[in-house]
Amino acid sequence: AMLRLRLLTWDVKDTLLRLRRPVGESYAAEARAHGVRVQPEALGQSFREAYGAQSRRFPNYGRGRGLSSQQWWVDVVKQTFRLSGVHEDGVLTLMAENLYHDFCSARNWEVLPGAGETLSRCCQRGFRMGVVSNFDNRLENVLSQCNLRHHFEFVLTSEDVGFAKPDRRIFEKALRLGGVPPQQAAHVGDDYARDYRAARAVGMHGFLLRAAGQGKEPGVPPEHILPTLSHLLALIEK
Questions:
Q1: SUPFAM superfamilies recorded for this chain (predicted)?
Q2: Each residue of 184-213: pLDDT tens digit?
Q3: 3-state class of 228 per DSSP?
Q4: What is the DSSP letter of 214?
């Protein structure tokens, strides 16, 4: 039976967009521009550590804790470099501000294969479309720069809403904005817990983007698995 869907919501990172290169490489290039040599691999490891610690201490970009998301990220970048042995305050501040702005642009993000075409075809078929992403408030700009923003009626970020996936309240807000009951909506994303299971928990349909060889998730029927985004319409319209 064809699903009676009216609203499609979309995760962004690693679903529609991905980083052009590993974070460590971007950070190392910024450091080189200031005459600082640091290995990309070391910076990648330091970034994961700094990002993890900051996320535990100030969840959801410090929302409700008196931090702007820009300050949250600047602190992560500075700590990343400190963990890799760079301690000069002036250059840390400069690099952190530059990197914060760099990750706002299409310089660091690329559209995943099939994403633009799939979004266009979904719009042509008359689906209402929105974004539900654990992203900071740079997302509107990132989507515009990558020429995807026009596909969506709304863009919900965890920073704006105040709740991060898998919290049901971010999905409930999307359903209110879309004006549809959950059984007429589906969420598309690459994360089993935050995207697929969380959407199913509010009664929405879910599609899990799974590259070949990524392994099977428990309890996801094969008709909910997308090997690529281009498979989506065929699954919806079966």
A1: HAD-like (SSF56784)
A2: 999 999 999 999 999 999 999 999 998 655
A3: coil
A4: S
